[in-house]
Design a protein that fits this description.
The chain is α+β, with helices and mostly antiparallel strands. The protein is about 30% helix and about 35% strand. The longest helix has 19 residues, at about 25-45.
């Protein structure tokens, strides 16, 4: 799972091997997608991205197929 949360400094993205805060929502979304795709590819199973309340439903990122 990759999670984006709102913090005083901006948008915090946390995944299995990633933990960083961004000052823009766009950068946080792009980082979350990249981390989720990397995790999904490494594990071979879908990884969820969980958004803050009001951003919409969670999404699943499928592993990349060769």
């Amino acid at each position: 799972m990759v999670e984006i949360t709102l913090v005083d400094a901006g948008f915090h993205v946390r995944g299995s091997s990633f933990d960083e805060t961004f000052n823009s929502r766009f950068k946080a979304m792009m980082a979350a997608h990249a981390v989720a795709l990397g995790d999904a590819t490494a594990t071979g199973s879908a990884v969820a991205i969980v958004f803050p309340e009001g951003w919409g439903d969670s999404i699943l990122i499928e592993p990349r197929r060769p």
